[in-house]
Amino acid sequence: MTTPRVRVGIDVGGTFTDAVAVDAATLELLGQVKVPTSHHHKDGVAHGIVEALGRLLKEIDCDPQDVAFLAHGTTQATNALLEGDVATTGLIGIGTGPGAILTRRLAALGKLELTPGKRLPLVYAHVPDHRDREAVEQAADALVRQGAEVLVASEPFSVDRPEGEEAVLEAARGHGLPMTAGHEITSLYGLHKRTRTAVVNAAILPRMLATADLVDASITRAGVSAPLMVMRCDGGVMSLDEMRRRPLLTILSGPAAGVAGALMQERISEGVFLETGGTSTDISVVRRGKVAVQHATVLGKKSYLNALDVRTVGVGGGSMVRVGDGANRAVTGVGPRSAHIAGLPYACFASVEDLRDATVSTIRPMADDPADYAVLDAAGGRFAITMTCAANALGLVPEGDFARCDPQVARAALAPLAALLGTDVGGAATRLLDAGVEQVRTVVDAMVDDYRLDEDTAVLVGGGGGAASVTPHLARVTGFEGRIARHSEVISPIGVALALVREQIERIIPGAGQEQILAVRAEAEAAVLAQGAAAEGVEVEVTVDPQTSKVRAVATGATELRTQDRAHRADDGERLRNAAASLKADSSAVEVLAGTGAHTVYGTEVRRRLRATRRPVRVVDADGVVRLHVADAHVESTTVADAPGVLARLVKEKTSYGDGGVRAPAVRLLLGSRIADLSGVLEPEPLLALARGELRSRGGAEPVVAVVEVRS
Predict the structure, then answer these.
(1) How large is the angle between the packed helices 191-203 and 76-83, nearest 10 degrees?
(2) Of the candidates 580, 582, 618, 578, which has an alpha carbon nearest to the alpha carbon of residue 600?
(3) Which of 174, 282, 415, 674 has its CA 20 to 30 A from that of 314?
(4) Residues 221-234, buried b or exposed e (16+ Cβ, 10 A)?
């Protein structure tokens, strides 16, 4: 039997390094291993990555040459900043006159606090003219004498005129230090924020370079020929060379790996992903099939780093219950202290004999904690009463789940608390979970509102080892559909294994015309192609914000074409039922509006008194997954040859005019296996130019479906 080619994902956590192998054709999990993260090894975390890979390939009996894709995620950049373990950064400011005033102020970046009492180690030198090579060399010499281990060049408006920063770095190259320039990190205006982002990137550069070189060399020695990729903080992966240039993109990549797993494995198109560990829950959003990202806060300041919008709540599977005192005892809260930090075992993972003669006591787990955390003192010792205990007592933890225990033991663990509260076991467990998920619900509600999620189709998906302690009960109390991801305890390395190559290009272009917009799109596409993405599968989403003059292009693509047959293909009936369920309509009221070989478009009519009829639409893929939902759309089928004329007519008909200006409709095109999303462009001409770009390389007879949504 031939070993299937596999995709390998490795997630380096603070305590453990998890590795998984996924079948490249079916995307099914083939194997998983866990090794301790090797922080203290002479090779650092690189040793654990290589050890995990070796054990994984042995477990699944896979030859290294059969690895089609290999990527790892790491907390190393995050930990370096949290622990203050960064390099001394030499910053060279460039400018004369008013420009000199601005750049000299950048020396204040040395006041950035890494940890309490520890500031970013930064030394500053100034050069008036980048063409004065002698002055540049003297400035670099001075910084090196002051301990600089990496150099950064920064000049006002370098995103438009990068030659000054480039000349300074070229003149300083003789020192042999890692170097970066402000314009290389971001192309957005804002000297201070751009330089701050570049300086933080540079501060972790030497350490990340050393790890990258060790991992790369070790992977090569192991016989793996697939290029090594690294997880980004926006849910994609990048090449090792790109990571060497911008290691800051790996910060916050841990939560991004989890949501990437939910997006790719669970095929979420709209919903909230909750990754629950023992102590906390990371909450993130998938909207219309894409992860939600924003400019991240780094060291307490907004940066130009595009990262997953993740919000963390101090409630997890190990969170301990808190009770009030006095005559009317009640559950007053859950967490933030967890059993792990308190050094206590979960009561539900004890035995019935261990819990014999159990009584409830309240303790102060840590010196600064309130003394109202409830514990069991029993024959077998002291135990924590946790969210996981309550979920098991209510039967919410499915068979085979990482957090599953003997339900009888879980009920025995909750019985003393129930007696204290004057209720039964089910009542005590429900009160405990209510208190815990209420904190999570507050954040989920806010994110649903912030991103205007379609509440009719949004789902809650739980990942992480503690998923069953939060997501099922949250689904109960909110009314959202909820489920636990398959293999939830390793959803992060699965996300790393399945992630797509991603690049985001941003430019500030006042009054951007179609040529400029197309140029930004082409730059993003070229960037992912340079990192190994297969050309035929690259997708580029372009957004133009007329208020900020920001043009953004996000390109994604796989390193190999995913044209293989899946293990499951939905039949017509299943696809119709899924569409009807999403539309909240009876199947008899749902009709097929259009289709391609990869997608079917379903719609219905919603008649409203005194208002126009609304036509909601759902696009369902061959697996039966709803990939796109539009509240009110016009759908039209055509061919590649006829599409330019059809689209020109539709855009003209559906463009709205008002006080806010011209607003072209939101257009999505179903092309082959892709959904080309052109909804980020508001001007008709650039929209049509982008559409022509999507159609250019395709045969004239190929079917195209346009889903057109009028903007109010």
Answers:
(1) 100
(2) 618
(3) 415
(4) eeebebbbbbbbbb
The number of beta carbons lying within 10 Å of the beta carbon of residue 680 is 17
Residue 1 scores a pLDDT above 50: no
DSSP secondary structure code for residue 219 in this structure: H
> What is the spatial distance between Cα 705 and Cα 672, in angstroms, rounded to a whole number?
10
The amino acid sitting at 167 is A
Return the closest-CA partner of residue 595 out of 442, 440, 445, 707. 707
| Amino acid letter, 517 | I
Task: Detail the DSSP E strand segments found in 516-609.
Answer: 539-545, 550-557, 591-595, 599-603, 606-608
User: Tokens at residue 465, please?
Assistant: 């080892």
Q: Rounded to two decimals, what is the model's pTM?
A: 0.84
SS3 579: helix
Handedness of CA 334, 340, 345, 346 (dihedral sign): positive
HSE at residue 353, side-chain half, CA atoms within 13 A, is: 0
Spatial contact of 106 and 124, defined as CB atoms under 8 Å apart: yes
Q: Is 319 strand, coil or helix?
A: strand
Write the Ramachandran bin of 88: left for phi over 0, alpha for psi from -120 to 50, otherwise beta: beta
Angle between helices 684-695 and 643-654 (to 10 degrees): 160
Nearest to residue 178, comparing CAs of 124, 121, 140?
140
Gap between the Cα atoms of 693 and 687, Å rounded: 10
Amino acid symbol at 169: L
Q: Is 320 helix (H, G, I), strand (E, B) or coil?
A: strand
Nearest to 314 by CA among 418, 395, 389, 387: 387
Q: Is the pLDDT of residue 351 over 90?
A: yes
Helix (H) or strand (E) holding 139: helix 133-145
Residue written as token pair 């892709």: 674
Rounded to whole angstroms, how far apart are CA atoms 710 and 277?
42
Listed in sequence order, the residues at least 6 apart from 477 whose beta carbon sits closer than 8 Å to its beta carbon are 434, 437, 441
pLDDT in tens, 400-417: 888 999 999 999 999 999
Number of CB atoms found within 10 A of residue 442's CB: 10
Three-point CA angle 149, 152, 154, nearest 5°: 160
**Residues 614 and 627 sit within 8 Å (Cβ to Cβ):** no
C-beta separation of 250 from 236 below 8 A: no
Peptide bond into 336 cis (omega under 30): yes
Beta strands in 13-55 (DSSP E): 16-23, 29-36
Helix axes 471-478, 425-450, angle to 10 degrees: 70
pLDDT digits (tens, 9 = 90+) for 86-112: 999 999 999 998 889 999 999 999 998
Name, in order, each residue with C-beta under 8 angstroms of 27's C-beta and a sequence gap of 6 or more. 7, 264, 265, 498, 566
Structure tokens at 100: 């000199």
**Angle between helices 191-203 and 205-221 in degrees, nearest 10:** 50
CB 242 within 8 A of CB 73: no
526 burial type by CB count under 10 A (0-12 exposed, 13-18 middle, 19+ buried): middle
Residue 563 clears pLDDT 50, i.e. is over it:
no
Which tokens go with 546?
């007329």
Helix or strand holding residue 649 (H, E): helix 643-654
